[in-house]
């Protein structure tokens, strides 16, 4: 059996009893034309290892292998899916390795060789947390060259948002600090089984060789989280307690303390986090 002769996904789901479980954030994408389109957004996969999270019955997995991925490492939390994925591995000549478990707890690094691309229809219940982890390693560049991920459209819009918009927040700053994100295309609810209540979108995020501006990543994340946690407040209030005399620190960084978080550019957030770092080092 080859990848092209594998049975349709609906037959696979029926044969293995793979009814989607809401508790696992499962919404299966059954249209192989769409899974192929997602795989192609990641660029040339030949000579690359691909990390996939939540393959389910393996629609996207098939597409990644068909597009020439050197190897696909898939992390799957639902043991019901393992027999279906084993069939794909057999059809792909052993190029699929499945790690059974929770993607938030497993470290797949030992199973991957550079260059690595991450491509996934992320389960809704872990998607944002995984993205933040991938964007916030201690060292940069990260283990991945690019992330091609499906999210709820609302999350996708937050990733690419610009200052001054309602969607602009922590995800935008973290995504754009060390990477280049763009929305590729949207998918309607009826593309999935079962259909979610929201429209989805595929986002491609390319890692930059170095951060756009100087800033300590963990401190930048802390500053941004505080600022947007109370986004309706002025910065002098939302950042109170970050360091003593936050108002004078903001002024010294050239930022009006009466501004609100959504008005600050990425460069200003980086400049502010550096000012905080210096102030703390002088205590």
Overall average pLDDT: 95
% residues in beta strands: 15-25%
Supply the CATH class of the largest domain: Alpha Beta
Give the helix level as a range of percent.
25-40%
Number of domains: 2
- Which structural category fits the helices and strands? alpha/beta
Radius of gyration: 21 Å
- Helix and strand element order: HEHEHEHEEHEHHEEEHHHH
Give the total of beta strands: 9
The name CATH uses for the topology of the largest domain is Rossmann fold
Uncertain runs: none
Question: What coarse outline follows from CA principal-axis ratios?
Answer: elongated
CATH architecture designation of the largest domain: 3-Layer(aba) Sandwich
Biggest beta sheet summary: 7 strands, mixed
Q: Going by CATH, what is the homologous superfamily of the largest domain?
A: Vaccinia Virus protein VP39
Structure description:
The chain is built from 11 helices and 9 strands. It starts with 8 loop residues before the first helix and ends with a helix. The model has no long low-confidence stretch (mean pLDDT 95). The longest helix has 16 residues, at 266-281. The protein has a 7-stranded mixed β-sheet with strand order 4-3-2-5-6-9-7, with helices on both faces. It has a two-stranded antiparallel sheet with strand order 1-8. The radius of gyration is 21 Å and the shape is elongated. It has 283 residues and is α/β, with parallel strands linked by helices.
